[in-house]
Amino acid sequence: MKNIFLVITTISMLGIACVKEQTPAGLVLGETVAFTDSTYTISNLPTPQASVIFIEEATGVHCVNCPAGATELKNLKNANPNRILSTAVYSPFLNQFEPPSKYDFNSQDAFDLVMFLGNGDPSKPAAAINRISSTNNQANTGNAFFYNREEWSGVIQSLINKSTPVNIDLTAQKDTTTYTINTKIVFTENYFEPLAISLFLIEDDVEDLQDSNTGEIENYIHNHILRKIITPLAGTPFLADVPSITKGTVLQRKFYNIRLPKTIVDSKNCHVICVVNKIGASREVLHAAEIHLPS
Fold first, then answer.
1. Nearest one of 223, 230, 282, 249 to 88, comparing CA atoms
2. For residues 53 and 175, what is the distance between their CA atoms, to the nearest angstrom?
3. pTM for this structure?
4. In DSSP terms, which residues pair with 28 in a beta bridge?
5. Is the bond leading into 165 cis (omega within 30 degrees of zero)?
6. Would you say 211 and 124 are in contact if contact means Cβ atoms under 8 Å apart?
7. What's the fold here for domain 36-295?
8. How would you label 161-200 residue by residue, b for 16+ Cβ within 10 Å and e otherwise?
9. Which run of H or of E encompasses 16?
10. Distance of CA 286 to CAs 67, 78, 148, 168, Å?
11. Taking the CA of residue 18 as centre, how many other CA atoms within 13 Å lie in the half-sphere pointing to its CB?
12. Hey, is 209 helix, strand or coil?
């Protein structure tokens, strides 16, 4: 399991402090992520952004129904332009690497993520949608964050008109072999629950084999492949010492020294998805944004 240790370097112009994240129940911890913070307030609020739904799609190379799942997700995105972002989570179930496949899409982060959202790999294709749990999700008992393909449209429609209390703006910089991601979170409403920022590195347009109901597809295009979770699984908390966050509060968090894993096929096809999510009893996603990494 991923170890989640957090180095939080909070800049108050001159000083630097280090804080350890609260350990979520059931996780063994240990990866570090470095960032700097700057917080301030503004009186002229920006126009609230439309909420963006975040989908974590459990999929596999040897899942014969997963191409239909990817098509369904693409159709849902086309029906709701600019309102849905997703990552394809190639966790071990139905995803063992074997020739003639060229690439191994498995990752420790993918396995850790499905364990974080449930008690093991769900049946596939499945999708966690804004990490909204469902006590009625009988098909994936023990994985209540995951919904079967037939449920995706209904869950998305129930969330599409929901507002978000935060705006997310992103910029990205490249410095030789590393990247810096600047996140700007603006609260357009008052808020009263603990929150965190989560960053996901994804890669598009990787051509490789995929099983399907009609046989092997040799030149299938794999998109939104989860390559790395840059932050801890639960995200990096922010403004944790503030009992309530007032509208007009701005958090600028700069994540730095981000390196691409060796599994990346083409860095030109890489993106980072930034998610603001609840922590604690709920893991609900409030909003998401995406930025293409510079070449």
1. 223
2. 31
3. 0.87
4. none
5. no
6. no
7. Immunoglobulin-like (2.60.40)
8. eeebbbbbbbebeeeeeebebbbbbbbbeebeebbbbbbb
9. none
10. 28, 21, 22, 10
11. 6
12. strand
Cα(36)–Cα(252) distance, rounded to whole angstroms? 8
Cα 143 to its chain centre, rounded Å, is: 17
Q: Is 291 exposed, middle or buried (0-12, 13-18, 19+ CB in 10 A)?
A: middle
List phi, psi (to 5°) of 72.
Answer: -60, -45
Residue whose pair of structure tokens reads 């693409």 in the numeric block: 74
DSSP string over 97-147: --TT-------HHHHHHHHHHSSSPPSSSEEEETT---TT-GGGTT-TTEE
- One digit per residue, pLDDT tens: the chain, 295 residues? 444 333 333 333 222 323 333 333 333 233 467 899 999 999 999 999 999 999 999 999 999 999 999 999 999 999 999 999 999 999 999 999 999 999 999 999 999 999 999 878 899 999 999 999 865 554 444 567 999 999 999 999 999 999 999 999 999 999 999 999 999 999 999 999 999 999 999 999 999 999 999 999 999 999 999 999 999 999 999 998 888 999 999 999 999 999 999 999 999 999 999 999 999 888 999 999 999 999 8
